[in-house]
Design goal:
Chains A, B: The record marks 142, 192 as: Important for catalysis. Chains A, B: Its main location: cytoplasm. Chains A, B: InterPro entries: IsoCit/isopropylmalate_DH_CS (IPR019818), IsoPropMal-DH-like_dom (IPR024084), Isopropylmalate_DH (IPR004429). Chains A, B: Substrate binds at residues 97, 107, 135, 224. Chains A, B: One of its GO terms (biological process) is L-leucine biosynthetic process. The structure is a homodimer of 356-residue chains. The first copy, chain A, has two domains: 1-106 and 262-356, Isopropylmalate Dehydrogenase; 120-258, Isopropylmalate Dehydrogenase (3-Layer(aba) Sandwich). In chain A, the strands form three sheets. Chain A has a ten-stranded mixed sheet with strand order 2-1-3-12-11-4-5-10-8-9, sandwiched between helices. Chain A has a two-stranded antiparallel ribbon with strand order 6-7. Chain A has helices at residues 15-33, 46-52, 58-65, 89-99, 123-126, 166-181, 197-210, 223-232, 244-258, 295-307, 312-327, 345-355; strands spanning 3-11, 36-41, 69-74, 104-110, 130-136, 144-152, 155-165, 186-191, 217-222, 239-242, 265-269, 274-278, 330-331, 341-342. Chain A is built from twelve helices and 14 strands. Chain A has 356 residues and is α/β, with parallel strands linked by helices. In chain A, a hairpin with a 2-residue loop joins β6 and β7 (155-165). In chain A, α6 crosses α7 (197-210). Bound molecules: 3-isopropylmalic acid (2 copies). One 3-isopropylmalic acid sits between chains B (90, 93-94, 248) and A (194-195, 224).
Chain lengths: 356, 356
Amino acid sequence: KREFTIAVLPGDGIGPEIVKQAVKVMDAVSEKFGIKLNYKYALIGGAAIDEFGVPFPDETKEVILSSDAVLLGAVGGPKWDNLPFEIRPERALLGMRKLLNAFANLRPAKLYDELLDSSTLKPEVVKGVDIMVVRELTSGIYFGIPRGIFVDGDERVGINTLRYYEHEVERIARVAFEVARKRNKRVTSVDKANVLEATVLWREVVEKVHEEYQDVELNHMYVDNAAMQIIRWPKQFDVIVTTNIFGDILSDACAMLTGSLGMLPSASIGGKIGLYEPIHGSAPDIAGQNIANPIATINSAGMMFTYSFNMPEVEEAIDKAVRSVLAKGYRTKDIYSEGCKLVSTEEMGDLIAEEI
Amino acid sequence: KREFTIAVLPGDGIGPEIVKQAVKVMDAVSEKFGIKLNYKYALIGGAAIDEFGVPFPDETKEVILSSDAVLLGAVGGPKWDNLPFEIRPERALLGMRKLLNAFANLRPAKLYDELLDSSTLKPEVVKGVDIMVVRELTSGIYFGIPRGIFVDGDERVGINTLRYYEHEVERIARVAFEVARKRNKRVTSVDKANVLEATVLWREVVEKVHEEYQDVELNHMYVDNAAMQIIRWPKQFDVIVTTNIFGDILSDACAMLTGSLGMLPSASIGGKIGLYEPIHGSAPDIAGQNIANPIATINSAGMMFTYSFNMPEVEEAIDKAVRSVLAKGYRTKDIYSEGCKLVSTEEMGDLIAEEI
Ligand SMILES: CC(C)[C@H](C(=O)O)[C@@H](O)C(=O)O
Ligand SMILES: CC(C)[C@H](C(=O)O)[C@@H](O)C(=O)O
């Protein structure tokens, strides 16, 4: 199959601007590799609230479910921050992950040598860092019930439930080991098995799945220690696999090591339809100014070709184009340093598309 | 009152060696400030398992409950790692916190200028970092029920419960604001209120308590963002207040910023009897070699004088002694750098005691 339908959800804030650049790059890819790409646009997050009153309308669900993959910009902004919990833009994200059964969130934290100075860590500590966080995305404390705020006696109590079934751990462990096989064959499973029984089970199941992947090295780490080790010596990690909430926290820590959030993509896979989005947010403060960095979204499109369309050569081509533009000294504002050439969002998109 | 009884629990690994140095320093303090200190020793953790079969024996509980404060070394080690969940050394820690109602865990992460180079972060990013993490310690997901591993249909499921009552949030928020008043009057409350209802309640209660502390500045941060901000620009923080598990993770990240875990103390307060311990573990690999850094434990004893005995002048004296020994170039192995004078655990204890 050489024709794919992509649901394009620009979302809020800088979402529309950066997604536009990714589409530009996909158009260039389409031409170069002879692939037909159909884009179906839909609203999500705040944009959908404004139009339909809900962050994840049925119209959007239909568009997504009739596509081969989803490219998302970003959602949320101060305008919708004071809405009730149930209809805030974030609900759309969580709803979409669940709808797509996208249980495996892959978040690479890779340092670009050209941007070594952007890190707040010493160069010798972060040079060459290349971590893939595999975060469980559709279960755990994000989705466990009971949940809510209840009245107990004369006061209120807030409750959430951390819950993992064996099969949920098994499938995410499998993804981690498979990913590790294509990388440096080392998996660190992060849990809190000295305190939380749910992660005692997690650890046990990961060990069992590991029996089928004896070519991959496995070690276990408590989450508090992992938070330290990421700062102390990040190069010790290849693949990190962990629960939804620990993955949320640790993947952001790993991303920050690189000092350039504007570069980092993510893929949420496991179901039939994959979801691709930058790890950064909607950055409402700089929206519409043509200064946002589109590379994270462009790289997310790159991951789409590997994980949804099984064309890793396209991701490689995109990666090469990005690196070449960086090597030539072009930078958006967020990654600018002295002696480089400052370019706008549009210009960065053009440069990368041309390079393809 | 000028006489205090201190329960001394050396624990496992390097615990006994480092506690011995803290006692040395307390003896010096006792002389200098004219305070009578009675020490009551008891077993905990692996040492207690070996003797009594359980990590937190009744004998130890009695000793603790008849003391004014508890000084703990560290617990655990590979010897006891494969015991069943219920009788592992960590149970002793959790049991003790609960027994003492020590709901507020204070973990200062302060960078010593002399050790600036130990950090993996750039000097300009960490110089002057001085964060106090106030972690809720006796509730949240560490203690919520239901918990355990259950059978559901033909597979197992692991469950833990995150639960906060209003009064639990209220009292920890109060501690954070009080601590902030003695510092730089800024509190960052960390939650995941965009996903977890338990922390929606957390945020609401923190805001309500804040009404009584209008002289303190309050802001809220999601935990994933906090993990990033700690790496990006740690100097933005003064006091961080958060849940048990988030505090476990973030306090370790903050500690690692300083690059010198061997220096950092902690206090667990809120009940009648306070618990003081270094943040580092029992380091079984270097136990008995007289090379461990006793300063974290000595500093923990320092916190005891402030928080349990209301004698901040003693903590100041200990702090001054430590700084002066560092300024003279003495270092244990973990913080050694070229040009310094390498000393043993015992020697470091002697030097600090003499300085008092
Ligand atoms: C916006 C929020 C619900 C989301 C999450 O916690 O999963 C975000 O932080 C992320 O990591 O994608
Ligand atoms: C040993 C463990 C139970 C403990 C915790 O998670 O509280 C430790 O990590 C700590 O932070 O004191």
